[in-house]
Amino acid sequence: MSRELRRFNQLIGETDRLYHEAAVRLGVSDSEMNILYAVCGEGERCPLRQICRQYGVSKQTVNSALRKLEAAGMIYLESSGPRSKDVCLTQRGRELARRTAIPLMEVENEIFAGWEPGEVEQYLRLTQRYLDAFREKASRLERRGPGKAGPEGSS
Predict the structure, then answer these.
(1) CA distance 37 to 133
(2) Of all helices (H) and strands (E), which one includes residue 87?
(3) Nearest by Cα to 36 from 1, 70, 60, 79
(4) The pLDDT of residue 155 is above 50
(5) Helix crossing, 30-42 with 59-71: angle to 10°?
(6) By the 8 A CB rule, do 28 and 34 touch?
(7) Distance between CA 78 and CA 84 in Å, rounded?
(8) Are 66 and 75 in contact (CB under 8 A)?
(9) Distance (Å, whole) CA 39 – CA 6
(10) What's the CA gap between 39 and 76, in Å, rounded?
């Protein structure tokens, strides 16, 4: 593993940890924060499918958090097509979002506001470039299970 790759993985891990700590400090789970954040980012409703895709979490994980938020009267699900639903905030959900997701968004906006416009654009461009390359190359990986030999003949 290259020094750059180790540093990259460290930065991703540390960023994930900080987002987790922020959610805990604000009194919600990571999944609940992801849901509230996604809905706030879209207004007051967001396609359920988009939440799973945007945050890379399984439907099972999202559904568990949705059930908890729904039982607490924070959200409700509304059909938006034959096989799709939108996650919508209730009044209580909007109040929760104002205490959780909105302050997190404000922190992120403050960070980008402190950068030069060219730095923000460069960061976003390079992150997108990495994501596109990773998506393309990862799609070519072969499934290997226990006992299956790799390219060098090792298991």
Answers:
(1) 27
(2) strand 84-89
(3) 70
(4) no
(5) 80
(6) no
(7) 9
(8) yes
(9) 34
(10) 12
Distances (CA, A) of 7 to 30, 99, 124, 148: 24, 33, 18, 30
Q: Burial level of 75, CB count in 10 A (0-12/13-18/19+)?
A: buried
Nearest Cα residue to 97 out of 37, 48, 43: 37
Per the structure block, which two tokens stand in for 143? 């499934």
**Prediction pTM value:** 0.84
Coil vs helix vs strand at 109: helix
| Complete edge-to-edge strand list for the sheet that includes strand 84-89 | 45-47, 84-89, 75-81
pLDDT tens, residue by residue, 69-95: 999 999 999 999 898 999 999 999 999
**Residues 70, 65: Cα–Cα separation, whole Å:** 8
Q: Running DSSP on this structure, what letter comes out for residue 142?
A: P
Tokens of 3: 């020094």
Percent of the chain that is helix, strand, coil (3-state, to 5): 65, 10, 25
